[in-house]
């Protein structure tokens, strides 16, 4: 038997299909959007949770000379640490592959980008599911390799991979596959191939050199403090003595020369660690919070809509309630009916939401959003949580009308004595809340967009456009100069320059500098460059001169930037000695070589005629033609090594990739939030207009014009939106002000941006409401009055 | 003042076609007080709405103040209506959210009378209707008779040439009903043309002519033997 609430729910749907659809669509869009966003946030916040005992796993990061910290640490660290910290249960080291490596199977060569060189106990600390082989039987000899299931399928199809041989690397060294594991993606250790870590060749035991990632797992009773004490002991017993300093331990520890260790819980690394040489690019915490918050906002808006529309509509049912009560229906039954109906509706919205979420993720296909839904659909707890959530929204929105409507005495309802339409103030408040969120989001996305544009357009202190950088020019060895000269014959090549480091290339060069006046050395970013780098990149020399091939003493010359002038405290930089025998010959304008989040750091450029990077300043049009020539030339010079290059402007844009995703997502979901809020406003306006039909009719008969009436009906709503503006704009200003603090180079928030957001919101709200007002205002007043 | 020629009004729903008015031809001269009578559903209110320029006829001609208005647009009708016609309804149709003063003021707002003039004229008619002491009350705070007096005040505040009353005494007791009728007669004596729809023979006889409708057609027209009030 169909339960009665289902019958009334269905009939109400049929009777008012427009409202029912609005109501469902609003909730469905909200559920779908927030579902995706919350899943995204959840995914990002739960990285590296899949390893049992992972809460006891820590990475040891290090720093020395105040260089800013490294995710890697010393290769010998784990030789000493376990002795100083008995709470360590197990420790493991690994190294990651830096660039694509060729993997040859038969005659086919694949390029694989993601692989690690690991200790034999890696899979004990980071358990993976083995599809073939077992953790204790892999990588026991230096010529074994473990593949991910994906690679195994790619190479061998459905055949078993274990026992097969593959040739890896330029040297084509043969490896036997000893295991196949399921690939993991929610970890900062994502890889598809695991090779044995070769024992260090030289016994170089420097404490100011990093080479391996070091992880430890503590015993159950162990604590982070114990680990930190152990590291302290390593410093005192090994690192300090090794520095051969005259200083006492505490003096040394306080100086710039000191080695430091940092303990990082495994589960914090993905979102919180920003050291140099990270295993993989981390997540973006701001983005996670921003999108998660938007997700919450949207579901809030949608829930409010649903409650608002449902309660508004239920007053139409007052007569039904009155009659039923008169006929003896207990209040309990009526409450059950309303809540039942509401839940049925919200479940219908959930079904719709699934379809929508599918479509929405298609918009983001190819990006990191895609795995979300696959995750969601195959994951019971996700689905369960979603179902519960939907039921809760249904229940909540059913509760209010259920108790509100059934509270009245039947005689009052039938006589029409009760105030129809529920609590006006509550509804007004909810509308204000919705629009506060929508307006805040509009303003925020405008500001994020502006900041991005600013970052793109800001003068970086050098010319990004038309600069192609060959990353692996060092592979040319002694032929590098010949290669350069051949390229210079091309009409598209304006200038070439060798450099050890190019802005944005991700490499780290830092040296210590100390003027005679300084008590302590300072670690400064260093750019080894030849005489062509400054003109090729269009850097501006403010004082002094560029390096010159013809001046022999330039091998010990330096050119520094303005920030370095300040950092080194140089009043008269030209000719100043910044290290023994190293003198400044020029000062360049500050240039941004990192994300614009960071201030320009002090930079010292040192004269180095050869470098691993070859920068080509290009001109003219036929880029495709030039790239073909470039590839050709490279192949002649270096047949085995693939050419690796990037365009400088692309690389710079990449630095703001996180911000760009954020802005795109905020914009998309702001539109959604606005859409949902407008759906609600639309429904509510329709309802109000309907409620006031008679009044409109009277006014019309008395001579009110259509614009009069539209104004009358819209005024109340616009007041609510205006109130929302007053709340939203300061909040948006504050939030964006805080966000902008992340950037050393940022826009200031201008009033017109907030004004634009305000105008947009008012306009959209007015259009939404006036559609309804127009409909009623243009109706036949005779009809309005006949319904008495 | 009013002349209709074979007025038709047909209502259509998906399945049914109802003829509310069937070739109604009436003529009403300025200064008349005409009562329209007939059983429920005979088309009285429909006729009144068309005469009041609230609704358009489906066919026929309607001359109002020398204009052929049957094909007028809503805007044109509104223009003619707000300057020339006042309405009184059975259920008063006062706006609950507005005070007595504001209700009466409405027609003046829509005819763009200045604020000071509005105040003067609203106070005049409220005084005339004996409702000055209630000017700041809301409709819900008044008795039925008082509400109808406010409605009458609103109908005449613009000095309309024509007053249309749809069962003005239908919701009132006999004392209040008589009161409203006396007011209408008084307005008629002052020169207003009045058309009133009513069920009540007693009320109808306050006018000087009675038109009877049945099934959308005029069945009789009769003059009232004038009695002195």
- The number of distinct helices of chain A, counting runs of at least 4 residues, comes to 25
Number of strands of chain A: 23
Oligomeric assembly? heterodimer
Major sheet summary line of chain A: 12 strands, mixed
| Distance, first to last CA of chain B | 26 Å
Structural class of chain A: alpha+beta
Strand order of the largest sheet of chain B: 7-8-9-4-10-11
Average of pLDDT of chain A: 85
Q: What is the structural class of chain B?
A: alpha/beta
* Chain-averaged pLDDT of chain B: 88
Number of domains of chain A: 3
Q: Which consecutive residue ranges of chain B, at least 5 long each, have pLDDT under 50?
A: none
Rg from alpha-carbon coordinates of chain B: 17 Å
Explain the overall architecture.
The complex is a heterodimer of chains A (about 800) and B (about 230). With about 800 residues, chain A is α+β, with helices and mostly antiparallel strands. Chain A has 25 helices and 23 strands. In chain A, the strands form 3 sheets. In chain A, strands 1, 2, 3, 4, 5, 6, 7, 8, 9, 10, 11 and 12 form a 12-stranded mixed sheet that branches. In chain A, helix 9 (about 285-315) runs parallel beside helix 21. With about 230 residues, chain B is an alpha/beta fold. Chain B contains 7 helices and 11 strands. The radius of gyration of chain B is 17 Å and the shape is globular. Chain B starts with a strand and ends in a 6-residue tail after the last strand. The interface of A and B includes residues 701, 703 and 782 of A.
